[in-house]
Specification:
It contains ten helices and ten strands. The chain folds into two domains: 3-116 and 302-316, Nucleotidyltransferase, domain 5 (2-Layer Sandwich), CATH 3.30.420; 125-295, ATPase, nucleotide binding domain (Nucleotidyltransferase, domain 5, 2-Layer Sandwich). With 333 residues, the protein is an alpha/beta fold. Strands 3-2-1-4-5 form a five-stranded mixed sheet, with helices on both faces. The radius of gyration is 20 Å and the shape is globular. Helix 4 packs antiparallel against helix 8 (234-260) and helix 8 (234-260) runs parallel beside helix 9. Strand 6 (129-134) and strand 7 form a beta hairpin. The longest helix is centred in the last third of the chain and has 27 residues, at 234-260. It has helices at 43-64, 84-101, 110-116, 161-171, 179-186, 209-225, 229-232, 234-260, 275-288, 305-316, and strands spanning 3-8, 13-20, 23-31, 74-80, 105-109, 129-134, 139-146, 149-155, 264-268, 291-293. The structure holds 5'-O-[(R)-(carboxyoxy)(hydroxy)phosphoryl]adenosine and zinc ion (ZN). Zinc ion (ZN) is lined by residues 110, 114, 135, 269-270, 302.
């Protein structure tokens, strides 16, 4: 009945979680709001905030799980990918904790952990399954053959899907991070109001930078023709942009599922919180005869529960690392 402490600090969320025998008993997330006024995450500020938040987050995770820290069997932490200064805080904390308590240390790949969030609660997908991982830094199509046997089938050649949302929001004058706001405004708009281009990228790779440029030119031109257009049509613009981002993602997902011939299809990462994507995937799944897996909202965006779960399965496999482990800003699945 191993108890695992999970630590996540790859970007701007400091998170600590406790799993007991593969079930989550606490998942504390300290958001950093300081970045809002800069329109994006400022790495130096993120590291400092992690430094302040990490001990209170771990203390609270232990308290809420109603365990004593002596009972923790191992500590799992995000090794990468992410911002190096942010990763260093979680890595250093985890190393010190493991050393002080003389327990094993487990390194976790953040992108694998987003996928393994599907094993937090039933029903769980069956191997092999396909996962579309969409976050602020990544857009990946992954064939998941086992807990840590993952094959990258496609990825973005430029911006990530989350960046496409966030950069569009910036063009529309919305604060950072704009993804959730576009989602909200889109619910009041008509997704067919405007048509944005779908990039013609061969194979299973993605591209979002052309879409961003098309949106910028569209908004500039409309504003010239009809001043105030953006404000009066915000819902329709958001709904139309979201419609296009979702169709780019799902067209590739459909193609990948056909190519590898799987029935279980999942989404993961921050953008999987998007209601347009969730609804469109459910509809597509029904049409294609897939079993569709969508994480609960709190397990879509960055969290330590997914790190603790990944740590749990590595603990069972006795997959530990030494004190010489270093964080990796780039780290493939
Ligand atoms: O996985 P995540 O929390 O952090 C990274 O590992 O990058 O993903 C954050 C991304 C941001 O780009 C944010 O705008 C996007 O997920 N996001 C959303 C929604 N919620 C979060 N995008 C669209 N709709 C949402 N509801
Ligand atoms: Zn993430």
């Amino acid at each position: 009945m191993p108890i695992i402490l999970g630590i996540e600090s790859s970007c701007d969320e400091t998170s600590a979680a406790i799993s007991i025998d593969g079930k989550i008993h606490s998942n504390i997330i300290a958001n950093q709001t300081i970045h809002e006024k800069f329109g994006g995450v400022v790495p130096e500020l993120a590291s400092r905030a992690h430094q302040q938040n990490i001990i209170p987050a771990v203390d609270q995770a232990i308290r809420e799980a109603k365990i004593h820290k002596n009972e923790i069997a191992a500590v799992a932490f995000t090794r990468g990918p992410g911002l190096l200064g942010s990763l260093l805080v979680g890595t250093s904390f985890a190393k010190a904790f493991a050393l002080a308590r003389n327990i094993p240390l487990i390194e976790v790949n953040h992108m694998q952990a987003h996928i393994l969030a599907h094993f937090i609660e039933d029903p769980v997908p069956a191997f092999p399954f396909l996962c579309l991982t969409v976050s602020g830094g990544h857009t990946q199509l992954v064939l998941v053959n086992g807990y840590f046997e993952m094959e990258l089938l496609g990825y973005t050649l430029d911006d990530a899907a989350g960046e496409a949302f966030d950069k569009t929001a910036k063009i529309l004058g919305l604060p950072y991070p704009g993804g959730p706001l576009i989602d909200r405004y889109a619910q009041q708009g008509n997704p067919q109001a405007f048509t944005f281009p779908e990039p013609q990228i061969p194979g299973l790779n993605f591209s979002f930078s052309g879409l961003k440029t098309a949106i910028l030119y569209f908004v500039q031109q409309k504003e010239r023709e009809v001043p105030g257009f953006l404000q009066t049509h915000l819902g329709d613009i958001c709904a139309s942009v979201q419609e296009r981002i979702v169709s780019i993602l799902l067209n590739k997902l459909k193609r990948a599922a056909r190519e590898v011939g799987v029935q279980d299809v999942a989404i993961a990462g921050g953008v999987s919180a998007n209601s347009g994507l969730r609804n469109a995937l459910i509809a597509l799944g029904e049409q294609q005869g897939w079993r569709v897996f969508i994480p609960r909202f709190e397990y879509c965006t960055d969290n330590a529960a997914m790190i603790a779960i990944a740590g749990h399965y590595k603990y069972l496999a006795r997959d530990f690392v030494g004190q010489d482990v270093a964080p990796l800003a780039r780290y493939n699945v």
